[in-house]
Amino acid sequence: MHIAFHIGANCTDEDRLLKSILKNTDALLQQGIAVPGPGKYRRLIRETIQALDGGHPAPDTRDILIDAIVEDDDITRLIMSNDNFLTVPKRIFDHGLFYPQAETKTRGLHQLFPTDQLSLYLGLRNPASFLQEAARRAQPPSLQAYLGMQDAVDLRWSDVIRRIKLAAPQTPLYVWCNEDTPVIWEDLIRLISGLSSQEPVIGQHDLLSDLVTPEGLTELKSRLEASPIDDRIRRQNIIADIMEAYAVPDSRDEEIDLPGLDANTVATMSEAYEADIEQIAEMEGVELILPFT
């Protein structure tokens, strides 16, 4: 079985990607692809990995898990998603590391499904806005208390990805920037679900509905209907044009006002993020999903 697992990161798409994929459940099931509700597996997998405590699972653990998660016997692809898989916001910087459990959690997942073909999917985000949103959820007494030994300007997604790949060097890892998701939303649905470019997809405009006016959505659908369904670059350019012409005021403006992050620090973090993305694009076993390419 192929298991496609969207592992986060925290504070990226807020389960909206899973909800869009779930809209295609019936069509996917006809192709042997299961998209169970998160209540079927999130707690189950988390607690099972925790119970391993670095050890090995019992020989029948995999089959027990699959039986609990999937109802049909003829499933060839299983899709799961949990933006808290690597950790919860409160523990993102435990032990002075950025996602210290990334390696342990990834290795544990592979121990649970040793005979299956796994692929991992990870959304990234500008560390400045990520840190602000993560701190809002974790509610630490101060930014320094939250970061511990970490310095905000030193946060690098490539460090997290390197540890994930260390735990699973042969497992494909697909990553993308949260800032690009409005343009590549349909591509992500297809990538994770397994739907080809020739098949219709539901939910491809879910994210845009919050970013452009109703008139913009109407114009978008009209222009897309005149384009081939598999013309990915043309579709992305149309979406970008609509977002520019019909944007909801202030829908994409994000003010960073977290105490401890001044304008210079935010600018430094943003520049480092761009350089880090370039480095990630060169990492072996990692595919960076970019728009207009």
Task: Record the SSE blueprint.
Elements: E1 2-6, H1 16-22, H2 25-29, E2 33-34, H3 42-52, H4 61-69, E3 77-81, H5 102-112, E4 117-124, H6 127-138, H7 143-147, H8 157-167, E5 173-177, H9 181-193, H10 214-225, H11 232-245, H12 263-281, E6 286-289
Parallel strand pairs: 1-3, 1-4, 2-3, 4-5, 5-6
Describe this structure in words.
With 293 residues, the chain is of the alpha/beta class. The protein contains twelve helices and six strands. A six-stranded parallel sheet has the order 2-3-1-4-5-6, with helices on both faces.
Number of strands: 6
Uncertain segments of ≥5 residues (pLDDT<50)?
none
Structural class: alpha/beta
Q: Which oligomeric state applies? A: single chain
- Proportion in β-strands: 5-15%
Q: End-to-end span in angstroms?
A: 30 Å
Radius of gyration: 20 Å
Strand order of the largest sheet: 2-3-1-4-5-6
Mean pLDDT: 95
Major sheet summary line: 6 strands, parallel
Which outline best applies? Answer: globular
Number of helices: 12
Q: What is the succession of H and E elements?
A: EHHEHHEHEHHHEHHHHE
Q: State the share of residues found in helices, binned by percent.
A: 40-55%
Quick overview of this protein structure:
The chain is 44% helix and 10% strand.
